[in-house]
């Protein structure tokens, strides 16, 4: 095992005692930081930045330097997986990701392949190796991927959506095709996460960003079995599941072979602990909008959150990614309040 100067995050994930609560922030490497915006301008585009290992490594480390968070998370995007499978995307300003081609038939499915991380995603693995060298054991590095159902949404819909009705249509109209695509995504995701671990990731997080558009019954059929495969396959490091909006699946996720379950801000903390049980770590879950408050409000809301979670089997975070127009000093206040918390 790698010797880390600060291993609070890993100990909390494994249920070991910690002397203080570890904290990191989803989207901590991003537009809230002027130093990120400077590197992004140099790269010319989001995808240009994500595919340039040295620049991706630089922005990964920025929040560790700036905020003193207890972990770095590799700067990348969940949609690198469909691209590696042969379905490229473009990032359109104001619109977000757009896939010129989509998967709607067996013929479409036949055109894509299983991703080969060492070839197709070498730029991410190279960025991880650079970050590990630069961090020199200071804090752990988190790797990540999108959950199969969330990736499926983009590959079928072709863009972001409030309803993902084209993607959900396939679940009803052609469930066999849906399962075939989900299995292909799952196989590629397992390979990708294992490659991230081999490159140096100390923990991995699976983002099921669109989990909340499914009914509980559909989630049990089209998401959980594929998450189970990933959790069962990635045994080298702790795995965190973060399923936005899937309040109904907390017990189901608790039965999976993961270390940590991330909560969004709509999930009641005491209820979540009861549903998940004592043998998993919880992560989250401050509403990112709380960081628009003044410093006293940020501090009060953060303390209120910790009082409910307690100090053990807990990783502090927001309930979703930090919004790009939030003052970095408010993020610093959030981090400092957690790191200075006394029960």
Outline the structure in words:
The protein has 343 residues and is of the alpha/beta class. It has 17 helices and nine strands. It has helices spanning 8-13, 34-43, 46-50, 53-67, 80-84, 106-111, 117-120, 122-135, 148-157, 165-173, 175-199, 216-222, 224-233, 250-254, 269-276, 295-309, 328-339, and strands spanning 72-73, 90-92, 96-98, 141-146, 203-208, 239-243, 260-262, 281-286, 314-318. The strands form two sheets. It has a seven-stranded parallel sheet. Strands 2-3 form a two-stranded antiparallel sheet. Strand 8, helix 16 (295-309) and strand 9 (314-318) form a beta-alpha-beta unit. Helix 4 (53-67) packs parallel to helix 8 (122-135), helix 9 (148-157) packs across helix 11 and helix 11 runs parallel beside helix 13 (224-233). The chain is globular.
**Could you give a short account of the major beta sheet?**
7 strands, parallel
User: Which geometry do the CA atoms define?
Assistant: globular
Oligomeric organization of the protein chains:
single chain
Class per helix and strand makeup:
alpha/beta
The number of E-state strands comes to 9
Mean of pLDDT: 97
Spell the H/E element sequence. Answer: HHHHEHEEHHHEHHHEHHEHEHEHEH
Low-confidence stretches: none
Whole-angstrom Rg: 19 Å
End-to-end gap: 31 Å
What tags apply to this protein structure?
alpha/beta; 343 residues; 48% helix; single chain; globular; two-stranded antiparallel sheet; 7-stranded parallel beta sheet
């Amino acid at each position: 095992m790698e010797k880390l100067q600060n291993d609070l995050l890993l100990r909390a994930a494994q249920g070991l005692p910690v002397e203080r609560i570890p904290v990191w922030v989803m989207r901590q490497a991003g537009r809230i930081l002027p130093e990120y915006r400077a590197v992004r301008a140099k790269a010319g585009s989001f995808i240009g930045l994500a595919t340039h290992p040295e620049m991706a490594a630089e922005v990964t480390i920025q929040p560790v330097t700036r905020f003193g968070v207890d972990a770095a998370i590799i700067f990348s995007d969940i949609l690198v997986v469909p691209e590696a499978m042969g379905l490229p995307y473009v990032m359109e300003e104001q619109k977000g990701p757009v896939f010129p081609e989509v998967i709607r038939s067996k013929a479409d499915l036949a055109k894509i392949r299983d991703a080969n991380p060492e070839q197709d995603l070498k730029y991410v693995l190279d960025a991880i190796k650079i970050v590990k060298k630069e961090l020199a054991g200071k804090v752990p590095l988190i790797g990540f991927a999108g959950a199969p159902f969330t990736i499926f949404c983009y590959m079928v819909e072709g863009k972001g959506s409030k309803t993902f009705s084209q993607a959900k249509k396939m679940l009803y109209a052609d469930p066999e095709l849906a399962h075939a695509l989900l299995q292909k995504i799952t196989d590629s995701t397992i390979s990708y996460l294992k490659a991230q671990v081999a490159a140096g990731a100390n923990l991995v997080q699976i983002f099921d960003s669109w989990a909340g558009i499914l009914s509980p019954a559909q989630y049990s059929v089209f998401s959980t079995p594929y998450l189970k495969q990933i959790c069962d396959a990635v045994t080298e490091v702790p795995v965190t599941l973060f399923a936005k909006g899937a309040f109904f699946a907390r017990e189901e996720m608790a039965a999976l072979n993961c270390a940590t379950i991330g909560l969004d801000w709509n999930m009641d903390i005491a209820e979540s602990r009861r549903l998940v049980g004592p043998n998993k770590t919880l992560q989250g879950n401050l509403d990112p909008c709380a960081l628009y408050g003044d410093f006293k409000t940020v501090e009060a809301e953060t303390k209120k959150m910790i009082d409910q979670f307690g100090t053990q089997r807990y990783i502090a975070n927001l309930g979703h990614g930090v919004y790009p127009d939030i003052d970095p000093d408010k993020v610093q206040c959030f981090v400092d309040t957690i790191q200075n918390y006394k029960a």
